[in-house]
Amino acid sequence: MSIYKIILASFLICLVIQLSHGATKERLFSDLEKGALEVTAKPSRQGVLDAGIDKLSITWKLSSTAKKQANFTTIKVKLCYAPVSQVDRPWRKTENELFKDKTCPHKIITRAYNKSSQSFKYTLERDIPTGTYFVRAYAVDAKDHEVAFGQSTNEAKTTNVFSVQAISGRHKSLDIASICFSVFSVLALLVFFVNEKRKAKLEQSK
Amino acid sequence: MAHRNEEEGSIGTSMHGVTAKEHVFSFSDQGEDAWSSHSVQSDDPTAKFALPVDSEHKAKVFKPFSFAKPHMRAFHLGWISFFTCFISTFAAAPLVPIIRDNLNLTKTDIGNAGVASVSGAIFSRLAMGAVCDLLGARYGTAFLLMLSAPAVFSMSFVADAGGYLSVRFMIGFCLATFVSCSYWTSVMFTGKIIGLVNGCAGGWGDMGGGVTQLLMPMVFHVIKVAGATPFTAWRIAFFVPGFLQVIMGILVLTLGQDLPDGNLSTLQKKGDVSKDKLTKVFWYALRNYRTYVLFILYGFSMGIEMTINNVISEYFFDRFQLKLHTAGMIAASFGMANFFARPIGGFASDMSARFFGMRGRLWTLWILQTSGGLFCVWLGRATSLPIAILAMMLFSFGVQAACGAIYGVVPFVSRRSLGIISGLTGAGGNFGSGVTQLAFFSSSRFHTADGLSLMGITSMIVTLLVAFIHFPQWGSMFLGPTSDGRKSKEEHYYAAEWTEEEKLKGLHEGSLKFAENSRSERGKKAAPDGTSTPLENENPADV
């Protein structure tokens, strides 16, 4: 019976989650003010960057064309996927509804809004996947709703993008442990098998 | 599947001629068979068993809380081995969001790996029946567990999509433990309860597909907290299913027993069990059209279940914007419903057989599988989360109970080729899973939701094939048993799998014994007919 209780509980939880999402459903990306911030992202070296090692020099400041800056409370800087890294990967899809949009999943830094130029030296995290990226800064108001943004690339997201190579996640010690346990498994089986065949032969010869 | 020759002293027996009394004598003799420590020198060979047994020494009752050897112990070792393999095979599914980032996978890569994970078992399940016939259920199980453990460990080496696919393919071979498990229970438990027993073993084993959706993220999280980065943590997490497999393999070999009377190698060397020819066993399986029908049917019950194990978490995650662990929880509920759904299917099959015989079993199967397909269509159509979850739970019950019901029918299709047919049906499950994943979930031609509905509709159409399963001695869904006096005897059906020379050697004795025990499949009509047939058993040449 407890399985039913668990199912019922998750039902209700999901219902509540869905209802609470209702308030944010209508906020669209297209409503945000484009180019309100000027963002630059300069890789520490040429070529493909290594996650966990290489850095990005990120700067952002208020653009001269910005209009809604009175509402800006916080600036959220994020690492975003360029279109080439979104192909055949629906979990990175760009959607107009902000709560569904999965273009910019990686947080870089969050800072209070300041009129003057800001900068940050970001070391690429070790869980950044292989791909092509750009940087986007969202300007967020006091209600934690995005109102404007700026990005280090053009609208089509084709210029100034940089490539990152993820860590492999492999380790020599893991490889060795893996081999040891595999060998043990096969050996143990063989030992049992040979042993039993031998005993059966002895039985027969009795 | 015991090829034991227990001729009750009739002439023309083999040189190793064994009567029931000799059997007991060689047992109380201190062989290496440490399991039968009962040194009871009784005349009744069945006295040494903890559970009541029939003439083949198969248990007549099912006591899930007991670990008594050999019957209940075999049951528990069997289903837990199968459970462990399900955990390993679907261990990657809940971790895909991490793995796809580490290995830079595309949706196509993930879909293909999903197909690969169930494809290996098509071949291993086919071979498994024969392997069990030759080596016994213990070594069949242990081989699978301990030879696929290296594949599980080798996830630590994987660096790209190709490697990921290969490793998932190789891990998938161990799903053949399903065959070794149901083979093991089929030799340990009698026909009347085999539906329930196989339903429990299969269902509790299948639960592994649900448990893994909770277990792997949890293990992954613990390892991350201990300090590893995500891309290393998921690799370490795979050591857990690997260890489980090795441990289970050792337990099976040390605690288990192939047959009620001992281990296969021992009994064969003593001449108690004759080895059947593989080609013959295979031939009789292929000649029986019911094998193919069951192959397809199981592809659309178990096959669909495995496909859902691979796609449902992602489906809920994307369609309803859920968090990863919420989607995982829902995905886990689907697989965990197996705990009661599949045994209920087996039980329903047994219950309907008690009143309506084999016809009852077939109707039960049709009803369960069709309703499963119906709820699958509903799941695809559902646009709100609570309705989707409700549809999914009803769908899981229907499809998993159908799996249990199919294995209520399988033991009766053949006696000689039970192992092969059990394996072929199981292989059909994997085949169906590969086909449905390929057809409905690997391309961007249609949305996953539509894929689900189409899969449900296809399932309902295919399930109509149940009507074609006909037994001359028991009938089918719409037809009664044949009126021919000779062909309507169970002995005729099962003895037909042996040639005249083989019958003269008395090799078919096991089948005749089974035929007698299978008279229960006539339903309520079994009682009046039972008295007239025992005479036929004593004259093996006269068939």
UniProtKB/TrEMBL annotation, chain A:
Single Gene Ontology MF annotation: nitrate transmembrane transporter activity
Keywords: Cell membrane, Membrane, Nitrate assimilation, Signal, Transmembrane, Transmembrane helix
Transmembrane segments: 176-194
Presence of keyword Kinase: no
InterPro entries in UniProt: Transptr_NO3_Nar2
UniProt xrefs under Pfam families: NAR2
UniProt keyword Nucleotide-binding present: no
Biological processes, Gene Ontology terms: nitrate assimilation; response to nitrate
A GO cellular component annotation in the UniProt record: plasma membrane
Signal sequence coordinates: 1-22
Family listed: Belongs to the NAR2 family.
Biological function: Involved in nitrate transport.
Name the UniProt record assigns to this protein: High-affinity nitrate transporter
Source organism of this protein record: Brassica carinata
From TrEMBL, chain B:
InterPro entries per the UniProt record, alphabetical: MFS (IPR011701), MFS_dom (IPR020846), MFS_trans_sf (IPR036259), NO3_transporter (IPR044772)
Gene Ontology BP terms: nitrate assimilation
Subcellular location: Membrane
GO cellular component: membrane
Residues passing through the membrane, by range: 77-98, 139-159, 165-184, 196-216, 236-255, 292-312, 324-341, 362-381, 387-410, 417-440, 452-471
GO terms of molecular function: nitrate transmembrane transporter activity
Basic and acidic residues composition bias: residue spans: 509-527
Domain of life the protein comes from: Eukaryota
Location of the Major facilitator superfamily (MFS) profile domain: 74-474
Region (Disordered): 509-543
Membrane association type: Multi-pass membrane protein
This protein's UniProt keywords: Membrane, Nitrate assimilation, Transmembrane, Transmembrane helix
Listed CDD domains: MFS_NRT2_like
Any Pfam family the entry gives: MFS_1
Family statement: Belongs to the major facilitator superfamily. Nitrate/nitrite porter (TC 2.A.1.8) family.
Name by which UniProt lists this protein: Major facilitator superfamily (MFS) profile domain-containing protein
Organism ancestry: Eukaryota, Viridiplantae, Streptophyta, Embryophyta, Tracheophyta
